[in-house]
Write a structure and sequence with these properties.
single chain; 19% strand; disordered C terminus; binds zinc ion; 48% helix; 2 domains
Length: 175
């Protein structure tokens, strides 16, 4: 494995362990020439996935790129890194098992957005802003409105469950 620091072809494996729920092997390597340390992952490649970009250009699916764009959206959010790893793993499995050999970058974007939406609304909006190339605040408002429409309106709740809970608390306090 070529050293990413000096380009030497000679590196030694210091440590190997299973990773990503046993779907990968993580290897810590050290370069015999410059002493640089780096990590490699060995994974089963179910199929080669080609991504068709908006420009029509085709590139090989890059798991690391997907992972990085999600990590950027998740920056400083209270989500454990393991959950992000699992999210990426789930997305990759979904893509690989879709039966398609080509997928558009738009389809990947929508898949990521659907996954982030359930995990963290802030990351969702951040990802949407990059992915959908927001130009002004109206774009943000549209996504936020869309997010809010998922949460039941308090008025609907009152209608469904009768008297607002606050009234009951107030009554109890009088006794
Ligand atoms: Zn090196």
């Amino acid at each position: 494995m070529r050293c990413p620091f000096c380009g030497s072809e000679d590196s030694q494996v210091k440590d190997s362990r299973p990773s990503d729920e046993n779907s990968a092997i993580r290897r810590r390597r050290i370069c015999s020439d410059c002493g640089g340390r780096f990590t490699t992952f060995e994974r089963v490649q179910l199929r080669e996935l080609t991504v068709v970009k908006r420009s029509g250009r085709k590139v090989l699916f890059d798991r690391d790129k997907l992972s990085k764009s999600i990590s950027v959206a998740m920056r400083k959010r209270p989500i454990e890194p393991e959950r992000i790893d699992r999210l990426v793993l789930g997305l990759v499995r979904q893509l690989e098992s879709s039966g398609e050999t080509e997928i558009t970058s738009a389809e990947i974007g929508e898949l990521v957005m659907a996954a982030l939406r359930g995990l963290d609304p802030v990351a969702y909006v951040r990802f949407a802003s990059v992915y959908r190339d927001f130009r002004d605040t109206a774009d943000f408002h549209a996504v936020l409105r869309d997010l809010a429409s998922d949460t039941p309106d308090p008025l609907d709740l009152n209608e469904r469950f009768g008297t607002p809970v606050l009234d009951e608390v107030a009554t109890e306090k009088k006794h």
